[in-house]
Structure formats: structure tokens, C-alpha cells
Amino acid sequence: MKFLQLVITIVCFLNSLLGFSQRDISQDSSFYDLKTALSNKEKVVLLVLNNEGYKELPSQILEFPNLKALNLSHNKLKTLPSWIAQISNLESLILLDNKIDSFPFSITFLANLKDLDLSGNQLDSLPFELNNLKKLERLTLADNQLIEASSAFELYNLKSLILRNNKIGFIPRGVGKLRKLEALCVAKNGIIYLPEELFLLPSLNYLSLFRNQIKTVSDQVCNLGKLNYLNLLGNQLTNLPECLLTLPNINIINAGANSYDEETIKHLNSLNIKKINLFLEKNQNESFFH
Description:
By secondary structure, this protein is of the alpha/beta class. It has helices at residues 2-16, 34-38, 262-270; strands spanning 30-31, 46-48, 69-71, 92-94, 115-117, 138-140, 160-162, 183-185, 206-208, 229-231, 252-254, 277-279. It has a 12-stranded parallel sheet. α2 (34-38) links the parallel β1 (30-31) and β2 (46-48).
């Protein structure tokens, strides 16, 4: 029961970061097929065209003057046309699970974009021009082929940055500039070292680093006074900073499947007087975590 409650807590927390989403848009402004939308052009705020088999975007999308959210998940898109930049009011663009192997340059002209999801594609790099998206608050690039993501760390209004399951080898020191960042996930990459600047983020409350190659975590992690969730599962740690267990807002520390000896595990558990959710076991089902 405790584990189930933990999973629910994580899911609810992540959902709270979505910001501009389908739940914020009235039902009569939300459309789920192009034909119906074209019969109600002025009403369309959210347009969802999932699983349509699109290899190219239909140009009729330009006919919706009030379009703010466009979901094109689970199609066969390899890129986006230049005319996408003409949708000047667009705030949310979801391109989950397509076949995009190069970041569509036209996206960088969407000046009002707040939410961008390109997860489940084949991206191996990000353009410098990504930082043109000054209003971007949520960037999700999970399950790609990124080797580095420095451009993403130049987006100073970001609240959520998800880079899970790529090939990233380092977190740039520029992470310290993301003063509004609340959630950072770089799980399942090849990160060895955590820069000191990471521990200076005043708003960070969700930090997921599981399945990397991290050998040590500095005591400076305890500067993260708002930290609520920390995932270090499946690294190469032999110990944890004890001050983590006394952070004022900490609720979950998942740091199992590391290289602690039994004495270290016993000692850390004895320090858990706040009775936070502390996981140090060797074997855990990581599919429940993010």
C-alpha cells in the first residue's frame, strides 16, 4: 500500500507541472479530428490529431485563428513545415512518438510557446536557436538520442526539463542559470559528475538521476531547500549525504540499487527519524519511477 501511494504521489506531482494542458481548455474549444474542427474554425483552441498516420502536416491547420494547443503524437512525421511558424498564438506543441531525427527549425519561431514535447523521436542534437523560445516553461525530450543538450540549459524560464533516456554525458554548468526550474529529469543517461551549480537552484523540488554512473553526491545537494523528490536509483554510490534526511520538504529519496555495504544502509535507515520514504534496497522495479 505504501508503495502504491508513493507511485500515485509521483504521478500527481508530474501532472501538476504540465501547466497549459487539455484540462485547462473548455470542451467546446477542444477538437479531436480535423473535419469537425474545420467546421468550427473560430472555436478551435485545442486540436488533437493523434494516431492519424500523418507523414506531413495538413496545411488546413493554419485555418484556426485561435489555436493555442496542438497535439500531433503518434504519427509518422519526420519534420515540420516552415509555415508552422505562422501559428503565432501557439503555446503548447506535442510531438510525442514521431520519426523526427532533426530538430525542426520552424519551431524556434514560435515566440509564445510554453510547452514543447518531442519525446520518443530520434533527435541527436539541439540547435543553438532553441534559446529563441524565451517563454518556454516545459521542455520534454525523453527517449531520443541526444549526446548533449546545452541549448536547453539556456532557457531561463524553464520550470520543467525532462531529458530521460538519452546519451547525455554531462549536465552543463549553465544549469545554475535556470532559477525557475522546479523539475529536472536526466535519468537513464551516462552522467558521471554533478556540477555544483545544480545545487544552487532555488526552486528545484524534483530531481531524477536514476540509471546513470554517478559515484558521489556532494553535501551541497542539501542547499536544495525545496527538494521534495530525489531519485538516485541504479548509480554507483557508496554513501549518501546524511543531511538529505533532514531537508525541510523532502518526502521521497529513492536511492536503491547502488553499491552501499550493509552497515551504510543500516546507518542511513537509523537516521531517518522524519520517516520519509527512503529506498536503499538493491532490487527495485524502476518502471514505477521517473
